[in-house]
Amino acid sequence: MIDDTGTIEEFLAHHSADVEEAIRKAAATEILPRFRRLAEHEVDQKSGPHDLVTDADRLAERRLTEELSALLPGSVVVGEEAVHANPSSYDAVRGDAPVWIIDPVDGTRQFVHGNDGFCTLVALAHRGTVLASWTYAPVRDQFATAVRGKGAFLDGERLFAGPPEPGRDLKVAVSHPDYTTEDQKRALRALWTDGVAPRSCGSAGLEYLAIARGETDAVAFSWEAAWDHAAGLLLVEEAGGAHLTLTGEPFRITGGNALPFTAARDATTARRVGELLRTG
């Protein structure tokens, strides 16, 4: 049983490439063959028409669960589809075992509609701290990785988000209204102001990648699911960015955050967006 961060860091030093290979194989085997070829019986609704799941989600998660837990004996898995089937399995995010956090197809709606704006997200966390992340957009052939304290990379090139260019509106991706409470809607509406150019978000993982690349300035999100945020938040951090909840604290993957929260390409932008959200 692996039970200390030092040992996990040793694992990452030797096996990060194995994790990447497992993700690429899952996409090649279970996701890409179904892209723009989904049959009607391969698509289901979960909580509503905007919350979809496909055979690609289920089968890719199953494959990743088997392969990643075998790579790191003693680890556990929190996957989006497994939690949907058994909500209590989410508790492992708060446990003592190393945990793989998996979103097999982040942006399932885009995937179903034949849009290439989806990705596979994997993070490795321990006792509430994300230690490594992998973001793979298979159709775009983009692979981003991050290891805590060692930087963020896209296809082997170091990522530095940097501050936004002065004098222009901030580009902010915002949660879809269907996924927000009335209080959250009120907070998010504060972003419709001078100096900010808000838009609806797409795949959370790709929005975080856009921040790490300096293409988007910030996000403002209203939900906590660790599989949507763990990988991307570490990527943003390691590219020099920051994230804050409504109380001014960093977002915690273990939950209990004051929402909505923001992640941004630098700390100054995170504070600016956070202040606007608090005025809503």
From TrEMBL:
Pfam family, one: Inositol_P
Keywords of this entry: Hydrolase, Magnesium, Metal-binding
Catalytic activity: a myo-inositol phosphate + H2O = myo-inositol + phosphate
Co-factor(s): Mg(2+)
Top EC class for this record: hydrolase
PROSITE patterns, alphabetized: IMP_1, IMP_2
Example GO molecular function: inositol monophosphate 1-phosphatase activity
Binding sites annotated in the UniProt record for Mg(2+): E80, D103, D106, D228
Listed GO biological process terms: inositol metabolic process; phosphatidylinositol phosphate biosynthetic process; signal transduction
EC number, UniProt record: 3.1.3.25
Name of the protein this chain belongs to: inositol-phosphate phosphatase
